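Researcher: I'd like a candidate sequence for this fold, 469 residues long. If you have to choose between options at a position, lean toward the conservative one.
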């Protein structure tokens, strides 16, 4: 498109959302050149800030009629390049659609606009004794729409399940601009599970504008424990032994020495033992009796696996401190080097000891600083590589190390992403775990929702063509 046509397009977009809410000045667009995966950058052609489903629909209809690609953006905290605008895409910025439309404790649900920041739902209902379970560590920034697109997880998803288990219904603007309602606010919906299909589709099936979410009742008691281990192997064994003992903690997280020290050097300092090789955070919830009995059993298991000490938070402040340390860990790593690659892979929990050991060996091979902080109970690893993006040699090493880590996860029967999605970052790895037939089927399903491929192009599945395409 030439500049005159672009000016006409901007005018048409301004007619839909207002003059202030279309950004096209290159300096303003810089803010949108990447998400939290800063190795992948691409400027959008424009950004349209929407305030309603109607505005999303009109914007998408216009872009579809002109064959211009587009994508939704929530908070841009994604770690796989999902919100990066490829092929001159226009970004549809959702953050202003952040209202809670309805709360029903009778039906235990909330209807929200998808630009709502995750934690704001729990903050709204917690005084009434409820919470929204999926709690990504980025929950003070990321949006419900981004969580839906990525099927986000979080520390408490071990017991409560990831985002897909908490969505009852969705209002979606399809890539041709039409509006559909998927799922139902009741116990079950008839026909295909289109909500299940949409969740995790990474913006390639259209734009969710409203979501009906399940609310959970706050448990009677919560016990948060911190076990200090002299080796990552003993910490990993304790994780498996707790689950094998028939206990399902609400959270079971691990942080290694490099992570602990980055946190303790930062504003998130939680008093964690700096000399520990790893700490395991165990949270138990349920009735007061149940949690007391389980906490004692967990303490015994940790000690028998070699823990040097097991500490239980005595009050809510101590509990919050532990979680601030855990959830602030990625931020704290900014102290190590200017850039951070947060990797995401899944392995069978029982393979943790050997896989962690091999990850440290990969770091050594490429002279990289790797730290591990992750959802150990789910076997969902986050090896984090601290590096300097200005050093091209180091960037090459980061890429090579990531490839080896992905290969390692696959070799032990795991997968290439637990919660951050494929985006642009992991397209090449998709071919390592799916056959061309599998990928073709996925492309065919995408073509039903997104026949022209305009919604978030070149993401999630590598480009193979199916007949329907
Ligand atoms: C410090 C840190 C900690 C993190 N911890 C976790 C964690 O514990 N668990 C976890 O799962 N992730 C985690 N993440 C990754 C990230 O926060 C999640 O993937 C989150 O769900 C992204 O939400 P967002 O609003 O920022 O989405 P964005 O980054 O803006 O977008 C992500 C994808 O969603 C699509 N999208 C956004 N809104 C919509 C919509 N309304 N409809 C359709 N598609 C849409 C975009 O097109 C894009 O493909 C973390 C990230 C950081 C930086």
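Model: Candidate sequence:
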């Amino acid at each position: 498109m030439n500049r005159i046509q672009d000016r006409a397009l901007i005018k048409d977009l301004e007619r839909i959302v207002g003059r202030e809410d279309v950004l096209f000045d290159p300096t303003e667009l810089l803010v949108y050149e990447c998400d939290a995966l800063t190795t992948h950058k691409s400027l959008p052609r424009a950004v349209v800030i929407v305030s309603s489903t109607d505005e999303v629909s009109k914007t998408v209809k216009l872009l579809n009629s002109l064959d211009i690609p587009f994508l939704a953006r929530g908070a841009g905290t994604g770690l796989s390049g999902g919100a990066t605008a490829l092929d001159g895409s226009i970004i549809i910025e959702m953050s202003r659609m952040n209202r809670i439309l309805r709360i029903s404790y009778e039906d235990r649900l909330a209807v929200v606009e998808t630009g709502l920041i995750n934690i704001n739902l729990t903050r709204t209902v917690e005084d009434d004794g409820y919470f929204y379970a999926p709690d990504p560590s980025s929950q003070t920034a990321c949006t419900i729409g981004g969580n839906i697109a990525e099927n986000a997880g979080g520390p408490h998803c071990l017991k409560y399940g990831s985002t897909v288990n908490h969505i009852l219904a969705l209002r979606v603007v399809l890539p041709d601009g039409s509006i559909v309602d998927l799922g139902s606010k009741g116990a079950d919906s008839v026909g295909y599970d289109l909500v299940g299909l949409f969740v995790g589709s990474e913006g390639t099936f259209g734009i969710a504008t409203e979501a009906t979410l399940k609310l959970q009742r706050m448990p009677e008691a919560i016990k948060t424990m911190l076990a200090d281990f002299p080796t990552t192997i003993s910490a990993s064994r304790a994780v498996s032994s707790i689950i094998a003992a028939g206990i399902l903690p609400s959270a079971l997280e691990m942080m290694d020495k490099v992570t602990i020290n980055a946190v303790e050097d930062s504003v998130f300092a939680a008093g964690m033992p700096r000399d520990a090789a790893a700490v395991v955070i165990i949270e138990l919830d349920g009735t007061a009796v149940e949690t007391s009995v389980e906490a004692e059993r967990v303490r015994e298991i940790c000690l028998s696996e070699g823990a040097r000490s097991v500490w239980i938070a005595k009050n809510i402040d101590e509990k919050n401190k532990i979680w601030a340390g855990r959830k602030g860990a990625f931020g704290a790593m900014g102290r190590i080097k200017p850039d951070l690659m947060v990797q995401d892979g899944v392995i069978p929990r029982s393979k943790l000891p050997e896989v962690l050991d091999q990850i440290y060996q990969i770091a050594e091979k490429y002279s990289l600083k790797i730290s591990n902080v992750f959802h150990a109970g789910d076997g969902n690893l986050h090896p984090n590589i601290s590096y300097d993006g200005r050093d091209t040699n180091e960037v090459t090493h980061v890429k090579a190390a990531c490839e080896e880590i992905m290969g390692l996860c696959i070799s032990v029967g795991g997968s290439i992403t637990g919660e951050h999605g494929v985006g642009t970052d992991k397209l090449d790895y998709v071919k390592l775990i799916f056959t061309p037939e599998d990928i073709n089927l996925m492309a065919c399903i995408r073509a039903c929702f997104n026949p022209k491929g305009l919604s978030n192009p070149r993401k999630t599945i590598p480009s193979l063509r199916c007949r329907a395409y």
